[in-house]
Write a structure and sequence with these properties.
162 residues; alpha/beta; Double Stranded RNA Binding Domain; Arc Repressor Mutant, subunit A; 2 domains; 4-stranded mixed sheet; two-stranded parallel sheet; 17% strand
Length: 162
């Protein structure tokens, strides 16, 4: 059974999802791939993991860096998990581009080269926005491109982080 909870952020509604133990999703309402990790049957209910996540979100939206990460369960391919782990390592207030991530992933996989487009696909399918900070990924040329929650939210999130 999966569970959801609705959080009202300064940038709009956010839906949290859990398997009952850990966070499995966090999406701006209506974003691309919204509720992608939820089963068809779920129930809205407040859970301890949602309380922890709400605390994280409250700290984040106050402009501060939360010093903890809620428990996450990521059901995905090994490739996407590797990319999302790199995203999670991008420090608060900093950015990384797709090419830099591709180099890191290629090094981890012990291969010569990794496609930045493949990285982009994995970044775009991140089901736990904000906590796995896909908004901190920018184009190789420095442009703010691609964000499932919308480019205007990406700009506001990066501004919030200064």
């Amino acid at each position: 059974m999966h569970y959801t909870y609705h959080y009202d952020s300064p940038l709009g509604g956010i839906t949290l999802a859990s398997d009952g133990v850990a966070l499995i999703g966090l999406w701006f309402d209506g974003q691309k791939y919204f509720k992608s990790t939820l089963s068809y049957k779920y129930e809205e209910k407040i859970l301890p993991i949602f309380n922890v996540t709400i605390k994280w979100l409250d700290i984040y939206f106050s402009g501060n860096n939360p010093n903890f990460t809620p428990l996450l369960h990521l059901k995905t391919t090994p490739f996407r998990k590797t990319v999302w782990e790199v995203l999670a390592s991008i420090p608060f207030g900093e950015t990384m581009n797709y090419k830099e991530i591709a180099i890191i992933v290629a090094r981890q996989k012990k291969i010569n080269k990794m496609s930045a487009q493949a990285i982009g696909q994995a970044v775009g399918h991140n089901p736990i926005s904000l906590i796995i900070p896909c908004h901190r990924v920018i184009g190789t040329d420095g442009n703010l491109i691609g964000y499932a929650g919308g480019i205007e939210k990406k700009i506001k999130l990066l501004f919030l982080e200064k």
